Amino acid sequence: MFNFSDKAAIKINDLLIFDHDKIIENISKNQALFKDLVLDYSPSKQTAYGYNRFGHMIKISYRDDMIEKIVLVTDKPEYLRKKLIVSYDGSNFFGFQYQSKHRTIQGEITKVLKEINRSDELIQGASRTDTGVHAYEQVLHFDTTMDISNEKWIEILNHQLPNDILVKVVEDVHPLFHSRYDVYKKRYVYKISLDEINPFLINYYHFEKSLNIEIMKKNIKYLLGTHDFTSFSKSAVDDPYRTIHYAEIIKKDGVLYIEIEGNGFLRYMVRIIVEYLLKLGKGKTSMSIKDVLEVKSRKHTNSMAKAEGLYLEHIIY
């Protein structure tokens, strides 16, 4: 009935199962729950959302036609789930994640929603961008029982939010959509100006006058594929493996754009990668990124690029 990957998981209400044989056993015992599914499956998306024959909510996440996750909830939702796409200038924020004593993206949006939505729940976001990092397209979600059109939500939110946050899209999504856990790929871009330092742009670019761009282009290709990224992570984690689908360096109009797209990123991973590329470009090291990955330690990557040049560009579900 279903073709599961080796790392598959299934969640039925509060019951969570990771063992492959137990997953098959549970589905066999509860076949009625998984028959006559109505899903919005599309080859361009990695997660299908829908309902079973009883009207229970279900979502199924795929990777290469193999099922990685099934979530089924039998309770009917008493809310509408809204998806937001927002842009922000991260210069005057202490990152995305809520902090009680500092200004953050999550904190500012939650504060506005709390007054409108009459809920204390934090709005959930796809990426916990660092202090000073910007976003073209950050994706968030929240739940509401308010009868407000999506167009009106945009108007209300943008009227009350500070000018360095802009809500671009509000749309209805399936009640099980999750802006963080359902992400398939994220793309970041790091901007390096090759001109003189401009004091009006120091919050938006890293400045370098002379770089060996060809050696940087050669090395960024070593990131492609699935690797243990321990050498490019600030913190030790149980699973340091990540898959990079796209990595390019593009020069245009005196600006170098370092673009990296992957299924996920470890803490400060992009900034550590950029800093090492800069070291290569400035001739401060000759050790390739391929060799650094194999070391699996921060011995050669003990610094990271400044946050100001980094942008969350796009998120794919």
Could you please describe the fold and organization of this structure?
The chain is an alpha+beta fold and 317 residues long. The protein has 3 domains: 70 residues, Nuclear Transport Factor 2, Chain: A (Roll); 94 residues, 2-Layer Sandwich (Alpha-Beta Plaits); 132 residues, Alpha-Beta Plaits, CATH 3.30.70. It contains 6 helices and 16 strands. The strands form 2 sheets. Strands 7, 8, 9, 10, 11, 12, 13, 14, 15 and 16 form a 10-stranded mixed beta sheet that branches. The chain is globular, with a radius of gyration of 22 Å. It starts with a strand and ends with a strand.
Q: Tell me which CATH architecture of the largest domain applies here.
A: 2-Layer Sandwich
Largest sheet: number of strands, sense, barrel closure: 10 strands, mixed
Q: Unreliable runs, pLDDT <50, ≥5 residues?
A: none
CATH H-tier superfamily of the largest domain? Pseudouridine synthase I, catalytic domain, C-terminal subdomain
Task: Summarize this structure briefly.
The protein is α+β, with helices and mostly antiparallel strands and about 325 residues long. It contains six helices and 16 strands.
What tags apply to this protein structure?
single chain; 317 residues; alpha+beta; Nuclear Transport Factor 2, Chain: A; Alpha-Beta Plaits; 3 domains; 6-stranded mixed sheet; 6 helices; 16 strands; 34% strand; globular
